[in-house]
Amino acid sequence: MRQPFYAFVRDLHLYGGLFLSPFLIVFALSVVFLVHAWVPGAGAPPVRRRAANVALPANLEQLKGREQLTALHAVLDTLEVRGEIGFVRQLPKPRRFVIPVAVPGRETVVELDVAGATADISTRSTGGWDAMVYLHKMPGPHNVNLRGNAFFMQVWRWLADATVYLTLFVSVSGIYLWTVLKSERRVGLILLATGALSLGGMIYGLTR
Amino acid sequence: MVSLAEKASEPLSGPRAESTRWQRWNRRLHYFLGLYFLFFLWLFSLTGLLLNHGQWSFAEFYANRRITHVEQPVRRPPAADAETEAKDVLRQLGISGEIQWLTAATEPTRLEFRVARPGLQYEIAADFKIGIAKVQRTEVNGWGTARALHTFSGVRLGDAKNQRDWLLTTVWVYAMDALCAGLAVMVASGVVLWWVRRERRVSGLLALACGTFVCAWLVVGLRWLQ
After folding, report:
1. Which ranges in chain B belong to alpha helices (H)?
2. How far apart are CA A37 and CA A84, in angstroms?
3. What is the ipTM of this complex?
């Protein structure tokens, strides 16, 4: 009875772990860049262009929230700028919009001049390492109401959650697989306790 | 009857004994790293989930924060750079944590900065002309502390003003680095464990390829396709 269950859990642990591996690598590598505030190759100069006669919805300045995002995405599509809108900065007096748009590895800032129907577009390639950092931070705690306005971000939001749940499953199933190995229990228990104590000690020191 | 698990770990003899010994150590490495880092991994996984779901009301922390104000006497530190002066002020106030500079100094007789540690934040405005430091202490609950542990590194991308200056932040950052290195080794040792199971090579390759494809689409593919 125990062996089929063990074999079943071992297979799930194996397949879950293999699927998870690239995500763990993305998260692990990006942590190193984030905690040392350094991303190699992220400083490429921007490429600028200007578009004239941009077709803008007449009520663009009156729209709010999701409706405004939908309208702006339609405008951005005509400018061939695609990605997740980070935020929308509306400047009422000069009648301008400043819109940062990102896909992992590329940042674009679009400045829309409503009165002149022009758009200044500045695009910067930030590279693969920065793409990992961007994904690590997304969807994140900021601009929650805007987040997920691009398809890839909706997918990533789901995958980021799935990564956590799968990590929990793989770790719990790993504990089960370890407990079955009677010969490794003592060392394993010592390491488990050492890990818990070192984490607890650090948290105590940081928060006391 | 010998269980599958024990069969997998029992010593073998013969021409492949050396390779088997290496595999056994690889398996041990996989287990032991996983066990040591287990709680670190759970902490960062669960706090990552919290950060991505700010709308979860049970984990609300900002609305429940506690703010207190105190004024304490403070002496002007000996002339030095801003960080050294700030550390002197902190020593006088009995506060420790990561110093954050938010604004440039406006007057030479004032020193304004923030001190942060997970769950706790002090806004300090020291006026050396009158010898008083105004301290605003903001404390958040356990959920806020947990979220802060996830992001607490003392530095931020694109913020050259702030450098890590608290020993415990450095220890915490090294712990995060160690977790990342541990995860990378666990992934590598896991791949080896899979590869030696010949009967699972094709199905395992499918699982690995699915994960790799999705990651590659996000990390590299999107900027070429869009």
Report:
1. 4-9, 17-52, 82-93, 142-151, 167-195, 201-216, 222-225
2. 23
3. 0.92
pTM: 0.90
Nearest to A188 among B32, B200, B220 (CB): B32
CB contact under 8 Å between B45 and A15, yes or no, is no
Query: In this complex, which of B157, B181, B215 lies closest to A37 when CB atoms are compared?
Result: B157
The amino acid that residue A110 corresponds to is V
Task: Tell me whether residue A125 is exposed, middle or buried, using C-beta atoms within 10 angstroms of its C-beta: 0 to 12, 13 to 18, 19 or more.
Answer: middle
- Cβ contact, residue pair B35, A188, below 8 Å: yes
What is d(CA B165, CA B6) in angstroms, rounded to the nearest whole number?
Answer: 49
Q: Which residue from B minimizes the CA distance to A132?
A: B219
Distance CA(A144)–CA(A138), nearest Å, equals 10
Residue A183: the pLDDT is 81
Chain A nearest CA to B126, separation (Å):
24
CA distance B53 to B128: 43
